[in-house]
Design brief:
The protein is of the alpha/beta class and about 220 residues long. The chain contains nine helices and five strands, in the order βαβαβαβαβααααα. The chain folds into two domains: about 130 residues, Rossmann fold; about 60 residues, Arc Repressor Mutant, subunit A (Orthogonal Bundle).
Length: about 220
């Protein structure tokens, strides 16, 4: 579990909130407590790491509404629901919306600790993937418009002479562009270029990538 990851605990029952926070801190978890969904929303961001543990029924909104609002704001923290009166309908809605787990308060202790550790580990993995993708996108964004055109031609399987004819430039200029692309993106072959373009999620539909805005 990452040292910077936290459990964002939300419940409008102050006694339960305090007791649950003590239990989780005793398990060496970093815990932040909130008495309402709005309070949580004012303290988290897309950069937050860890998971949210929330009651299904809050004073200002439902847990499902909180889950939707987190998603709307780009906060990808896994959400674990606790409830004293869980229903099949609510649990199905929560899980369909991407909830990490749905537990009843009265039986939640051991299951909750397991669910939190699993959710935080999955969030850390997802965060690492986002960092990797963002880094690749920055590299591709550093390409000039002409270099992006060359990349698209390379990914379409065209040879240097074909690229030169299509773009109206010399073969030597194509080679210079390819050398610059290799240096900026950090690749050695067309196969590796295609792999990185795919990992950076630059493809719309079909083989040609959709590049982020850059210079």
């Amino acid at each position: 579990m990452s040292e910077s990851a936290a459990v964002f605990l939300v419940d409008d029952d102050e006694l339960f909130l305090a007791a649950q926070a003590r239990t989780l801190r005793a398990a060496r978890l970093q815990v932040w407590t909130f008495s309402s969904g709005g309070d949580l929303l004012s303290h988290v961001s897309p950069q937050s790491l860890g998971c949210v543990v929330t009651d299904l029924s809050l004073s200002d909104m439902t847990g499902l509404e909180l889950q939707r609002e987190l998603a709307n704001r780009g906060v990808t923290l896994p959400v674990i629901f606790l409830t004293a009166y869980g229903t099949i309908c609510a649990s199905v809605c929560a899980m369909r919306a991407g909830a990490a787990d749905f537990l009843e308060k009265r039986n939640a202790h051991r299951d909750l600790l397991d669910a939190i550790r699993d959710a935080v580990d999955r969030d850390a993995t997802a965060h690492d993937e986002r960092v990797k993708v963002d880094d690749l996108r920055r590299k591709f964004a550093s390409l000039t418009p002409r270099e992006r055109e060359v990349v698209q031609q390379v990914l379409d399987g065209r040879l240097n002479k074909q690229i030169a004819a299509t773009l109206g430039i010399t073969t030597r200029t194509v080679k210079l562009h390819r050398t610059s692309i290799r240096a900026k993106v950090g690749i050695r072959s067309a196969v590796q270029l295609a792999t990185l373009a795919r990992d950076a999620r630059l493809f719309d539909s079909g083989p040609s990538p959709s590049f982020p805005k850059g210079q």
